[in-house]
Input
Amino acid sequence: MIRPALRNVIPIQKMDDMMKRLLLSALCTLTFSSAFANDELPGFDEITVKTTHRTRPVAGSIWYPVGTKTYKGLRGDNPVFVGNYAYVGAGVKEGKFPLILFSHGSGGNMFSAGWLFSALAKKGAMVVAVNHPGSTSGDSSPRRSILLDERAKDLSATLDTILNDPNFNRYIDQSQIIAAGFSMGGASVLNLAGARWDREKFSQYCKTYKSADPGCIFFSKGGVDFDHLPDGFIGNAKDERVTKVVSIDPGYTVAFDKASAKDIQIPVQFINIGHQDRTFGADLEAEGNNILSLIPDASYAVTDHGDHFAFLPSCKPEGTALLEADNDDPVCTDPEGTDRVEVHEQIQQYMEKFIGLD
Output
């Protein structure tokens, strides 16, 4: 199901330890990124999304094929995760490209899948991602994260913004608007396709798995009342402009409202990560919640190895120790036999084929 928040900044108590770790991280960044700094790079820029459902603008970013190069900048790099280089503010390559709206998972941010955005942009797509207020790094609240309709509305507002931006709109193929998301973001993009969620199903699920499912634990810690879930949990956020959806290890599928299946009239690709350690809520096959059999035009792919957290960026050598020191989720500890880069490549290949970039 969904996973608890990931923090983007990890406090370290001892100054000498901090200096050692920062030096190791810097060395890793230089070593890792130097191999790619001269590789073909995507363009990158930041955008501001104005909404009618939020009290403040939403921060966003866009990755795209490069026309004219500018300077190289490293984005999404921190003491735990390896970032990605891009040409900041570069000109867009001439042509029309599919547009992908991306929704991050609980506690994630608009750089959490930079490895994927970079790869898709280099293949000929434009990718827009946002920080969802209330469920992003450093601002992740159980009470606000449960408002699923607001996350989906963030994406619709982002689409409004980018389609009205003269710097980018003429490069967008509006017949190919794809919504993609991971974990809680996987549920958010299903909302855009027409999916709705059932309060009673989710309530019963979390009462049954309240001490086992990470998402239910996260909400319980924030005092979410499963008997009185807010209207935002079941809100209709369908956006007719979206033509395809990619939902990666999605949350909330256990609470899928079967009656909403008829409203999903576009192709949906589900991707699970690995074959092990899935909660019932994230298992899309017959042994799990079986959502695959409910949506008319659904396809399914699964990576050979990995688990939920293997979707996140590659970790630096000191990443595991930093997370342990902060008592954070073990997001750098993959199942035995997992090569995170290979997992990323499989997900990328599945998406490229589904979107038509291969």
The first helix runs from residue 15 to 34. The chain is about 30% helix and 20% strand. Residues 67 and 93 are 4 Å apart (CA to CA).
